[in-house]
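Render this sequence as a predicted structure.
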Amino acid sequence: MTEKMYNQCVNLYADNVYRFIWKNLRHEEDAKDIVQSAFEKLWINRAQVAEGKEKSYLFTIAYHQMIDHIRKNKRVDLHETFGDEVLGNTKQPNAIGHQNLMRALDQLNELQKSLVMLKDYEGYSYQEIGEITGLNESQVKVYLHRARITLRNYLVSPENVL
């Protein structure tokens, strides 16, 4: 990988990687640190990264670093610590719906949450998600299906309906 190709990767994928990490952590500075670290690892290992696999490599590295970060800071509940600052204290009509969706996502474990974000928010294929998470395609489908059932059950329960 040349310096030019690396810079193209930064331009093409930095926002997507950041958005994915931020949606999972909901902490801006930690997300920025993980993205920066992922790009640093890409640069260090640029000779081993196959051409055309840069995106998958970045998301894989960022995903694993995010999981490590979550495990390391498991005792800290960022949602309670940062509250409205992270979710945005908006007065829009759908702010309640957004908050319900965030609470529903909090019902999922880290893997399920990551799968939902990669598939439904970022639009990756099952195969790409498998490469990023280290799961096979069947596992991705099963875990994603279970996550969606959990989300549906949470969102349609009477206490969570708008």
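Summary. The domain at 1-89 is CATH 1.10.1740 (Rna Polymerase Sigma Factor; Chain: A). The CA atoms of residues 27 and 78 lie 7 Å apart.
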